[in-house]
Amino acid sequence: MAFNTLNPIDSSDPRDLFDNAAIFDQYINASTPFVPDRFKVNRLTLGGMRYNFEQSQSGRTVAFQQFLRDSAFEVPVAYAAGLTLERASQTFVRDGVQYRIADPADLAYTLTGNWPGESGRFVSMSSDMLSDAERTRLRSLSVCVDSYITEGMIDHAPAFQAAIDTGAPLVVCSGLRSYDIATTVNLRSNQAIDLCGSVINVTASTMLDAAFFGLAIVNQKMRGGTINCNGMAKSGVRAHSGDTGCDALSYTWLRITGTANDPTLQYGGIEVASRDGLAGARNANVMIAFCEFVDVGTHGSLVYVTDSGSFVNNMVDGSPNHGMEFVACNDCIQTANRIFNCTLSALGVGAGTIGFVMSGNFARNCGGDGTFTVEHNSIDGVVSCNVGLDCNTSGINISHGESGASTRLRNISAIGNVLRQKSGISNYIGINAYASTGIHMGSAVFIQGNTVDGFTRPIEYRYFEDGLVSENIIDGSTVNFAVLLAHCTRVKVKGNICSADTLDHSFQALNYGALICDLIDFDDNSTIASGTAAKSLIYIEGAGTHRASANRTGGSLHFVECLNTATVYTGDNWGALAGTPYEGGTTLATLSGRTSLTVGTAGPAAALPANPEGYLTIFNPQVGQVKVPYYKTGSQ
Question: How many domains does the chain fold into?
């Protein structure tokens, strides 16, 4: 130091400042580990501090590495009885999982080989590994079909069967791959199969009844894939009631193609069948939803003898027989389905089905007895808000199908449907309600609020009592008639509008042999014309008592024409006539009641009688109560 004053700290002597600057320069830049301060005390330089730090870190690294060497887990050995663990670092492997001792206080420990009894003494070496119990549980929940496929396997049916036979609640496929099956795969109860978007191809050399089959299965589900039957399986999925019946079946998001045609009209893309036709054990709770059936051989789906079934949001395109049908079922629903190009009906219930809803479906280019069918003694249901376009035959067919002492056709409503005949097709019925052969009449069958377009025979209603045909719209260039009744009693035909020229009488009440219509009420119906004004608005073939009021024609021969003696209460019928208002045919009808109005050129108003019949008191919000006289004129 230049001055070395040894002045005490806090010195403001410029010489001390000069000495401090020199000391600081050495502190920063000197390579020596120490530098003396103003008072001759050695201080560590930055270089000295750096040297000490590096030496300390080196020692720590050596110590840490030694610690790791001393505490590292040893190379694992296989789990086996008699192996002794003496150090906490010793490990072993069992079923692919590495374990160590959980509590070092248990050392030394000799393995017994009884894993369930001693597994609690060990922990797995990784926190992201499942516990043994969890791995066992998950393994029991699902299996993958691919785990059972061997190299060179051509027929994958045995792999499916092996996976299913494990009894695992869930059987899965590797997503988006293809499998070939040459034999039927048997389904089990309490199991779900998720095809995960895969495609199943039937490659059988001889015809299979089904690609997948279950006998008396319960709680069985299948979803999410395609089954191509390639004409070698009659059904994609088939469940059979056996002796006890199937229960809780769910088939969703499946696409089934190419099922084989069966001349007995059995089978289907998905079929739930009964052991002895319609007399076997009953099934229950079947749901088929969001499925596609393309170019199927018989039905898209057919469900027999089932209590509580659903067809929901399915699509069928191409079937030589029916689209989807419930047979001898109870409490079933068909809704939001789309059916195209079926030779027979699009949707139906049959063989004594009780309790059904067929609503909100769409069908095009289907035939059979009708696009929508209710047949063979089915009762207690509704056919509503469906659309049937390009119908090859009838639009809706509600028929008994059997005579004799069979169940009477009853309690059925066809409401709010839209039906259109296919162009070039003729002589079919828009809505056909037909109860047996007339001996056993049906009852409470309502045909209401439908649109029937292009059918030459729009509505036929045969052999019913206590019924209603009302507020239907009948359209088309030319039709044979608007509404035809045969052997009906206590039926109201009301508010129907025919916007076509009928070739024959517009509204008809006909006999069935010696059985007549009786107590028919024709009210507020209208037509464009009846036989170009050469036919009558209403035609009654037999005797009986009827009413015809407020009906309108744009051109008819008569308002009412009776072939035989009948009593007809009339009033307020109106429209253009080419003949007399009423015609009795061979025997003049007995007409009584109010006289019908005749439309003609308006003349001067008739003078009112001198004295009113009485007064009505009405309330006018501006002037209060007002008395208004009323008069009786003519027969009114």
Answer: 2
